[in-house]
Amino acid sequence: MAITGAKVAAAYDQLRREHGGMQNDYFGLLFLEEEHHLAREQAVQQVAFGDQDSGIDGYHLDTRKRNVVLFVFKYARNHDQFREAYDQLLAGGLEQLFGTGSPSDPLLKRLRSRLNAERDQQPRQAIGVG
C-alpha cells in the first residue's frame, strides 16, 4: 500500500492535537506502520513530531536482529531538506544519541532508553581463548 498525501493529511488531522508537529511529520508514522508493521501506539513513540535538533526523524529497533535503523523522513520533492537534516545529524545528533551527555531531543531520549534497556536484557557472552 502506497503512502499518499491524502493518507498523510488524514493522519495529521486525526493526531495533531495529541502529538503536534507539522503535516509532513506524519509520513514517518505511516512508514513505520506500513513497512515495519508497527501498531500506531508504538510507531508514535518512534517518530519526532515538530521541531527537533538532532536530524533524526524516526527509528526502528529490531531486537531480534539486534540492530537499529535511524530515519530522516521528508515528504517533499526538494532534496535540499535532506541536506539540512544530515547537517543537523552530523553537527550533534549522533553525539546526542551515542555521547555521554543527556540528549535534549525527546525522540533521542526515548531511543537511548530503549537501547539501554535492550542492552541490559541481553546475556553477556564469554569470549573463549582457543
Main beta-sheet strand count, sense and barrel state: 2 strands, antiparallel
Strand content: 5-15%
| Helix/strand class | mainly alpha
Gap between N and C termini: 51 Å
Q: Could you outline the blueprint of secondary structure elements for this entry?
A:
Layout: H1 5-19, H2 26-35, H3 40-43, E1 58-62, E2 67-71, H4 80-98, H5 106-121
Quick structural summary:
The protein has 130 residues and is mainly α. It has helices at 5-19, 26-35, 40-43, 80-98, 106-121; strands at residues 58-62, 67-71.
Structure, described:
The chain has helices spanning 5-19, 26-35, 40-43, 80-98, 106-121, and strands spanning 58-62, 67-71. With 130 residues, it is mainly α. It has a two-stranded antiparallel ribbon with strand order 1-2. Strand 1 (58-62) and strand 2 (67-71) form a beta hairpin. The N and C termini lie far apart (51 Å).
Question: Any key phrases for this structure?
Answer:
single chain; 130 residues; mainly alpha; two-stranded antiparallel ribbon; 5 helices; 8% strand
